[in-house]
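As a warm-up, study this chain.
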Amino acid sequence: MKYVKQFLIILAISFLGEVLHMLLPLPIPASIYGILILFALLETRLLPLRLVKETGDFLIEIMPVMFLPAAVGIIDSWKIIKPSLLVYLAVTIVSTVLVMAVSGLVTQAVLRHKKGVKNG
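Now compare it with the structure written out below.
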């Protein structure tokens, strides 16, 4: 029953994201609104982590399974993709390297900042 309650909390926050998406005239996906609401609630401790932790961990564990429909879609679209395969690969490699580099730099900056706050 605990998992059902946690999942319902996450669903309710996702629903709020959908409502915001319909109400606000911004080109932001509803899922982004939902994740921002969840982040704000967790960061302000209005929603204690223990109320969604186990279900969140479960959803992260099964995340690779969620990519299967996209992979099947790529296989289904092979005739369209094949002529531009090198372009797709180049964009994928460049964007992956950029995301890794930026993530690493941001992580290092956050760690340095935290170390400075502790020492300062």
